[in-house]
Amino acid sequence: MADKLAGFFVKLGYDLYNNLIEKGRYITILTGLRNTLLIALCAIVIGTVIGALIALCRLSKNGFLRGIGSGYVTIIRGVPLVTQLMIFYFVIFGPMGWDKILVSIIGFGINSGGYVAEIFRAGIQAVDKGQMEAGRSLGLNKTQAMMKIILPQAIKNILPTYTSEFITLIKETSVAGYIAVQDLTKSGDMIRNATYNAWIPLLSVAIIYLVLTLGLAKLFTLLERRLARSDRG
Amino acid sequence: MIEVKDLYKQFGDNIVLQGVTETIQKGEKVVIVGPSGSGKSTFLRCLNLLEQPTSGEIWFENTQINDKKGDINKLRQKMGMVFQHFNLFPHLTVLQNIMLAPVELKLQTKKEAEENAMRLLERVGLVDKAGSYPAMISGGQKQRIAIVRALAMNPDVMLFDEPTSALDPEMVGEVLNVMRELAEEGMTMIVVTHEMGFAREVATRVLFMDEGKILEQNTPDAFFSSPRNSRLQDFLSKVL
Known about the structure:
The complex is a heterodimer.
Chain A: H1 2-21, H2 25-59, H3 63-78, H4 81-93, H5 100-125, H6 129-137, H7 142-172, H8 184-195, H9 199-227
Chain B: E1 2-11, E2 14-24, E3 29-33, H1 40-47, E4 55-60, E5 63-64, H2 72-76, E6 79-82, H3 94-104, H4 110-123, H5 139-151, E7 157-161, H6 169-184, E8 188-192, H7 196-202, E9 205-210, E10 213-218, H8 220-225, H9 230-239
Parallel strand pairs in B: 3-8, 3-9, 6-7, 7-8
Antiparallel strand pairs in B: 1-2, 1-4, 4-5, 9-10
Helix pairs in contact in B: 3-4, 3-5, 5-6
């Protein structure tokens, strides 16, 4: 029994070394992590900008802008992310010689923008109509009322769903491997193919994703709590 | 000061205002009463263009309000409005609520706006609430703050849209008191309300609206003691 246990740990130690250390495999993981973070962070920035613009389009009085907004959201939400990503790479940007990671950033950003737009729109529409009226009745124009009264309140509605969109985005970058980007998941896969060991690379990758998403969730909870100051009765 | 000519307002198939013509002079305190759905709130909201009239003209201080060329934001600065549900800005403190518009519109410096706000808060006895958020104060206090917020713009006229209808009964008095004081100081006021006591006591003129028209108007004494219109008689018999 003791022998068996000792044997297990010796093998575990060997496997860990073989999968994570030998031939600098931790560097493979770190490179993947760097790419995943780079893609997710840049994509959420692009997604937020696009989302804000599309949300404003959808809330516009102008029928043409509204059409653009809802068309964008319909297409983005109706086509699988992997398909979109492959179209961006193999059809549009790849032939132009663009870098894979750059294309992923743009692809994930454009995709995320569709979802962020809906989060923003819902958050803005959830602010009581009387708030805009009160602002306008004081003589503020629409933009001033939006910036000073509506958006600060909308952010509170938006933040929880926006957080989960960011977390979703981090996890979704795992399909970047489809256009041969070495993200975190792809890195794990590369190790698996080299060592024929599945569980150590995959579990390591899973744990890193979990740490990332948990950390972010915690960070946003803190932010939400700060914004909730004025709600305390 | 305010002149309304043949005002119509239609929501879909529903005609809410059917030709209202009315002139309100500076210093008047006009109270509008009537059953719900009579169009009195819509009429009030047309005066500062929160509702766009379907047809007709509204003039305020010799400018036509519902004219595309007019600057409605400029005109609204001179028309304070108080809402049934207060509509305080929940993300700002009481003081910030009052200072927001004068500072944002660059009519006052931050310092002036703050002094002005504190002076107004003192008048309504709420100086100690300056740093509170709206969620922390009572309905009556909220409505008094909302009045102060409108006054901070130094308006020429104040519009009140059922200012006490959303309040607990014991808080109605404190809000009406502030309005009474405002009336005594000579503010031009247009008030939509169900508070008949206030109408009788403060109004210089009472209007009765039903089905989108002004059916009768008179001094409060005559209005309540000898109503001529049968629908007004019916209405008064129910509310008095």
